[in-house]
UniProtKB/TrEMBL annotation:
Protein name according to UniProt: Coiled-coil domain containing 125
Signal sequence coordinates: none
Organism: Cyprinus carpio
Keywords for this protein: Coiled coil
Ranges in a coiled coil: 82-116, 144-217
Keyword check for Coiled coil: yes
InterPro entries attached to this UniProt entry: CCDC125 (IPR034608)
Any single GO CC term annotated in Swiss-Prot or TrEMBL for this entry: cytoplasm
Length: 287
C-alpha cells in the first residue's frame, strides 16, 4: 500500500554530508527545484573574498514546503491523467489516504531536517565563539609571554645594578678605611712633629735667653774696659760683619723678651730694643 510513497520518498544518508565547507541539509538526494531555490556556492577567489552567508532555517523550511507542494501537485496531476474514468470512489479514497500519509511522512522528515539544520546552526555558532575565544586566548598568551620576557630582562638589569651597587659600596668602604688609616697615621705623625717642634722651640728660647745673658755680660765687660783694651780685644776677635753682629744682637734681644712666650712674632718693645742695640753697635764700630 505504501510502496508508491516509499519509492518516491528520499532516503536520509547515514553520514554527515558536510564536505568541502557545505553544512548540508541532512538529505541525500535533492530535487532540481530545491537546487534552484538554494543559493549557489561560490568557488575560488569569490568564496575567499566574500564573508560567509548563512541561510536561515525559516527560509529553508519555506523552500522545502514549496517543493513538497509542487511534488504533490505533480503526482496528483499524473495520477489523474493515468486513472481512468472507471475508478471507483474507494480507489480514490485509498489513493487520497496514501497521499495524505506520504505528506505526513514528508512533513515529519522536514521537521527532522529542520531540527538537524538548527543543531548545525547552533554548533556553528558555538564553533565561531570558540574560534573567537581561542584567538583572544592566543593574543593574551602572546602578551603574557612578552610581559614575562620583559620582566626577565628587567630582573636581569636590576640584578646587574644591585651587583654594581654592592661592588661600589665595597670599594667605597675599602677606600674609606684606607683613607681613615692614612688620616690616623698623619695625625700621629703631626702629633709627633708638634711635640718635637715644641721641644725645639723650648730649646731655642732657652738658647736665646742664654745668648742674651752672655751678650749682656759681654757688653758690661766691654764697658768696663779702657779704649786701649777695647782695641786689643777687637784685634783678638775673629773678623765679622756688622750685619752679623746686628743679627746676633737682635736675636739676643728677641730671646730675652718675655712678652711673647708661645714662640710667635716678637713684640714692638723687643723690636725697638733690638734697633737701639744695633745703633749702639754701629756707633761702637765707628769709634
Amino acid at each position: 500500500m505504501h510502496s508508491d510513497g516509499e519509492g518516491s520518498r528520499p532516503q536520509c544518508p547515514t553520514e554527515d554530508d558536510m564536505r568541502e565547507g557545505d553544512l548540508g541539509d541532512g538529505m541525500g538526494a535533492r530535487s532540481r527545484g530545491h537546487q534552484d531555490h538554494l543559493p549557489q556556492m561560490k568557488s575560488g577567489s569569490e568564496r575567499s573574498n566574500e564573508p560567509f552567508s548563512w541561510t536561515s532555517c525559516r527560509a529553508m523550511y519555506a523552500i522545502f514546503r514549496e517543493e513538497l507542494e509542487a511534488e504533490r501537485v505533480a503526482r496528483w496531476e499524473k495520477r489523474q491523467s493515468e486513472s481512468s474514468s472507471e475508478d471507483t470512489s474507494e480507489e480514490l479514497q485509498r489513493r487520497l489516504q496514501e497521499v495524505t500519509e506520504e505528506v505526513e511522512l514528508l512533513r515529519t522528515e522536514l521537521e527532522v531536517t529542520h531540527r538537524h539544520l538548527e543543531g548545525k546552526h547552533e554548533a556553528l555558532r558555538i564553533l565561531q565563539g570558540q574560534a573567537i575565544l581561542d584567538k583572544a586566548t592566543c593574543h593574551t598568551k602572546i602578551l603574557l609571554q612578552k610581559s614575562e620576557e620583559r620582566n626577565k630582562a628587567l630582573e636581569k638589569e636590576v640584578n646587574a645594578l644591585q651587583w654594581e651597587i654592592t661592588f661600589n659600596q665595597v670599594q667605597f668602604k675599602n677606600v674609606e678605611n684606607s683613607w681613615s688609616l692614612k688620616y690616623e697615621r698623619v695625625l700621629a705623625e703631626n702629633e709627633g712633629l708638634k711635640k718635637a717642634l715644641e721641644e725645639k722651640i723650648t730649646q731655642h728660647q732657652e738658647q736665646r735667653t742664654e745668648n742674651a745673658s752672655l751678650s749682656q755680660k759681654c757688653l758690661e765687660l766691654l764697658s768696663m774696659l779702657s779704649a786701649k783694651e777695647r782695641k786689643d780685644y777687637q784685634r783678638t776677635q775673629p773678623p765679622c760683619s756688622l750685619r752679623t753682629d746686628g743679627s746676633a744682637l737682635e736675636l739676643a734681644v728677641y730671646g730675652a723678651c718675655q712678652c711673647n712666650s708661645n714662640g710667635g712674632e716678637p713684640c714692638s718693645c723687643a723690636r725697638s730694643a733690638a734697633t737701639s742695640r744695633k745703633q749702639v753697635l754701629q756707633l761702637k764700630q765707628e769709634v
